[in-house]
Design brief:
This protein is mainly beta. The longest helix is centred in the first third of the chain and has 18 residues, at 5-22. It is globular and about 100 Å long.
Length: 888
Amino acid sequence: MKKYPALILLIILSIMFFSWHSEAKDSKALEQKVVQAVRINEPIVIDGFLSEGVWNGSGYNDFIQSDPIDGGTPTEKTTVWIAYDNEALYVAARLFDSEPELILSRLERRDNFGESDWFIFAIDPYYDHRTGFQFAVNPSGCIVDWTLFNDEWKSNTWDGVWSCSTHRNNEGWTVEVKIPFNQLRFPKKEEHVWGVNFQRIIKRKNEKVSFVWIPKEESGYVSRFAKLVGIKGIRPGRHIELLPYSVGSAQFRPKEPGNPFETGKNFLGNLGLDMKIGLKSNLTLDATINPDFGQVEVDPAVINLSDYETYYAEKRPFFIEGKDIFNTFGQGGINNNVNINWDSPSMFYSRRIGRQPQGYVSNDGHVSFPDRTTILGAFKLTGKLGSDWNIGFINAFTAREYAEIDWNGNHLEEEVEPFSYYGVLRAQKEFNGGAQSIGFISTSVIRDLRTETLSNLLSNRAFSLAVDGWTFLDKDRVWVISGWFGSTYIEGNETTILNIQKSSLHYFQRPDSSHVTLDPDATILSGWGGRFVLNKQKGNFLCNVAIGALSPGFDPNDAGFQYGVSDVINGHVVIGYRQPQPGKILRSWMVAAAPFRSYDFGGNKTWDGYLAIISAEFLNYWGIETMYAYNPETISNTLTRGGPLALIHSGRQINFSSYSDSRKPIILSIFSSHYLRPTQGFSWSGGFSLRWKPRSNFSISFGPDYSFRNSKIQWVTKVIDPFMTETFGNRYVFGKIQQRTLSSEIRVNWTFTPKMTLQLYLQPFLAIGQYDQFRELAKPKSPLYNIYGEGASTISYANDIYTIDPDGTGPSKAFAFSNPNFNVKSLRGTMVLRWEYLPGSLLYVVWTQNRADYTHPGDFDFSRDMGDLLTAPGDNIFLIKFSYRWNM
């Protein structure tokens, strides 16, 4: 990147000049439509027949096609109406179809936007041109609902309580929707102006029509909505919703003789209460007493050979609903968030709350260790203050947790997690209709550490504070700059802070580093981070430029999540061209290229590369994407895990993926990735996903993945040896690994009615690693490694232990380590029956099974390993959860 800064700058300026002077405007897209809502006095029966008088008016039918012909005339007529009373908003649509027998209508579980015809209704009750709600109904009455944010983004984690009904006839199908005002957020006014849009999908034609048409070369969604007028004098009142629940579970697992904690069975029960209180029409308080924060679906199995933490997605309803305000930190304003070799830190990672206790047991004996931390109580405040401030506030308290120990018949307890407080505050204010924004996020974790073990392991206080925002650079909102900047602060005793400095996030102990030093007396660790992005929002030409940095002391991991070392300065320049309009062969295509580079704060080039991407969709709706990347020689500051710098040879990567037409009963997608570093190894991964839809209410998906990795520099261990002066008194030991991983995700979805579904998830997982040719780094920043067994060194193997004499008759002592070979076999699965027996009231019946086997390390035999897995003892958990929604 240093070689061509002038050329890159010239290209960017040329694109900016061209876009400012040649972006076409279409009058059909620029004119704002107006929709009149009609107040009604007669009751509306939500039956889908549209028999009420209010639906006899002319309605609105001037829709425009966006697919397959952008800006074309719809092939079928659609007419919509909006009405309201004091309690709710009503939407009706008549969706004509010249071939009604060909309407695609699948029974889907809630929030599964599957291959079907759909009617979609979206509103912006704040009329802030940035946020809103969206509702979708298919001809079978299945529903999806989303929150809309950042103008173009959406999330289906919100589950509103609303009703709908559909009806099919010889002219097509009709739909009626009722959305209570207490499910929406809007400012208190006598007369309201909202944003509104309608869409329709005719799946067999892959046709999409919209009331508000947005050309594909343009950007924006909520900001382009039509104006909804006529809503006056509504008084929805304060919304209070109580959701008491009860849950019972039975766990069965193999009995362990002599272990009083493993009797083969365990029964648990719990009661709790969730509350949702509308403090105002635009603020909602979610509170919970003795919450059930278990998750229904298990986490996938992984094999992690790195020294970084594995990230798991949040699946608990309390945290996923309304998470958008927290997740958009640092990403607002832009519609193309590109990360090339940049692990963007999350300032708030909700799975820190209620995580498995972080302590350990220092006594021998049989142990019963808690699998999660009890959340005593939590509340969440989300919504708007005034007309422009978006806020989110979470407070949670977690209990002390104790491990039970049976030691020679004596019953002991040892504290493994302290009483803790978690808090996060997020606020964001927008200006000039979303043209600019400023916001901040603040997190805090405070622990009451009473034992020496936990005091030496955990920080007692951790805080973070960061600001973010964006600003558009031109009145047409083609170019935008978005960014964030913040700091973290951790406080603890000397042992805790020393361990944090030596952790994989920091590696302050690096012996050849001049910009970081290990401070054994420190009781505070702080750092800063930030990133800024220039993005082109619309048009055929693409441009995205980013620069980011995380100082060596930056650490958000008490309340947030960061993967990778903090000590990084990273940048990229992406330039491309897209053609969203169909031609003679392709329906759409895109090409892009990018240089990228990373340094640490000591000036070492830790990653470098150039990539090119091509993607295309054919007229038959099949698509392909391929990527080629080249990485020149770089320096790694993490390979030796706190040791000296190491040379990484050049490499190249080729990816390919393809997918088939989603309208067909069988949908296929494939992928492949190959990375080659000629002198240090290679890796290959590939797989496919197959989805079969034999019936309108039943589908099976099957997705096997296989990967093979051959690396000569897989970390094994570190050995202290003062005679190894070339690497600063330590030997950094690696091995050649041949790793095979085979896994699959199998899903079965059976929908009985839109309110009752049965889901099955199953993940078999095999990971086998075989090590040989052990070696040590000969000297820093060098391609040289000393292979054990060559020259004067010797290596021997007995009783699953390798013994190494690194210099034969020399002064260094022999050392040993265990055979690192592994063979991890896992089978995880859940079966969930979900029944919404009343609006917002749910019954879950769940069966979960986990089983694992670790025999035959390093040796892969598919039939034998699968046999071992299927005959391994397993854990079975049966759970019933009942909740009742009480609307006050």
